[in-house]
Design brief:
The protein is α/β, with parallel strands linked by helices. It is 25% helix and 19% strand.
Length: 418
């Protein structure tokens, strides 16, 4: 399937997750000769960077690839990790997509004289006029610098390395970060009977269901999914994380505390190489989640009125109104050994790994893509599946039907000019 050094493909897609396979589908429809290069297996990130009990946050009715639709018996259910990988493999097979697995790209560069991109792989060199980077913007974990100061006897894992409670050493677990990964992993551990401490932050929250529908239905239909990227940038230019959302039911800090999770403030540092210190403000963090959920609900209520939708009346969610069980007095400092803490799981966010790109101007000082709605300043270079690339919906499978064709049209127009 590899081409010679003198044969330029119309396009090459890097990455065979949902974004890469979707872009391949649209490239094939446009009649462009292309290949999809995958470092290991189709859906590799979903296979190797998700825990065993992981389920998709999007209901089955929305977890569909281009040209497909869900016709199963559980539209409001949630696919497991392995079911989603099977869906991707089936999509690639049915559509005869030109995927080359076990073909990592060691370097991507631009030959301006030739007007083509060069990709170095273990199987040889490939050339293409256009490149679609679909390797993911959330596959490299971020840890704060303080992680290097933690006591050496603690096992430190990132969220992408956690598999199940039984795979961890005996003892309590400290989960750092209370967004989606942190909240869901803390619950997974608590339900297995593991002692859990959760270092929280100022993170929003969404109810799983509201007024008879899954929250994703309301996000899509009410326009909340269409909020533009600029509204999610913090003062430093970073994209703010997504709110805490449970799978199949609401997860809140207070519901976690009712399951025995010990809630802490934000982890701020290490004292004398041993004791961990935590900020005040735990109750404010809980309140921020409550206020965030209430704001989502008000927007949905207003939409229901504007659209004259016959929806059930709002009901209290037990996981939101339960009284939190907080340490008394609040824990501002603790010795992990005294509380039998053996493991720390960092749920502090992800970046994309683009260190193999050697294209001038394509990445910023942090090594992250510079783009405008997925389109690079370098001609013929696009980024697909990026979190918050255009709107709140970006980075979810629901965005592919809109963002995929737009990127392909951009490449087709450029192809026609050349």
């Amino acid at each position: 399937m590899m081409t010679s050094n003198t044969d330029d493909l119309d396009a090459i897609v890097v990455g065979a997750g949902w974004a890469g396979l979707g872009m391949s589908y649209y490239l094939a429809q446009a009649g462009l000769r292309h290949r999809v290069l995958e470092r290991r297996r189709i859906g590799e990130t979903w296979r190797s960077q998700r825990w065993d009990a992981f389920r998709m946050n999007t209901p089955n009715w929305g977890t569909v690839m281009p040209g497909d639709r869900y016709d199963g018996l559980d539209p409001d259910g949630f696919m497991t990790r392995d079911e989603f990988v099977t869906l991707l493999e089936d999509f690639a097979t049915r559509n005869r997509l030109p995927v080359e697995t076990n073909t990592p790209v060691s370097e991507l560069s631009l030959d301006e004289e030739r007007g083509a991109y060069r990709l170095d792989t273990p199987r040889g060199v490939l050339w293409a006029r256009n490149i679609v980077i679909a390797s993911g913007s959330l596959n490299r974990p971020r840890r704060p610098a303080m992680s290097r100061e933690l006591p050496s006897h603690l096992l430190q894992l990132d969220a992408c390395d956690y598999r199940n409670p039984g795979a961890l050493s005996a003892g309590a677990v400290l989960v750092v970060g209370s967004a989606q990964c942190g909240g869901q992993i803390a619950e997974d551990l608590a339900q297995a009977g593991r002692p859990v401490f959760l270092a929280t932050g100022r993170v929003g929250r969404m109810p799983r269901r509201y007024r008879g529908r899954d929250i994703v239905f309301w996000l899509r239909n009410s326009g909340l999914f269409d909020v533009p990227r600029k509204d999610f940038l913090d003062p430093s230019g970073r994209i703010m994380g997504r709110p805490l959302l449970g799978v199949g039911h609401t997860v809140s800090l207070q519901s976690l505390s009712a399951q025995g999770v010990v809630l802490l403030g934000r982890l701020t540092g290490v004292e004398n190489g041993e004791r961990l210190s935590f900020a005040a403000g735990l109750e404010e963090n809980i309140r921020f989640g409550d206020e965030s959920s209430a704001q989502f609900k008000r927007h949905i209520d207003d939409y229901i009125v504007r659209a004259a939708i016959d929806a059930p009346a709002a009901e209290d969610d037990p996981d939101e109104i339960i009284t939190p069980r907080l340490p008394d007095p609040p824990i501002r400092s603790l010795d992990p050994a005294e509380h039998s803490i053996s493991t720390v799981i960092w749920c502090t966010g992800f970046d994309g790994d683009f260190g193999w790109m050697r294209v001038p101007g394509a990445l910023d000082a942090r090594g992250q893509p510079v783009h405008e709605e997925g389109i690079s300043i370098q001609p013929g270079l696009c980024f697909a599946g990026m979190d918050f690339a255009v709107t709140r919906k970006s980075g979810t499978l629901l965005s592919l039907a809109e963002e995929g064709p737009r990127l392909i049209n951009h490449l087709v127009e450029r192809h026609a000019k050349n």
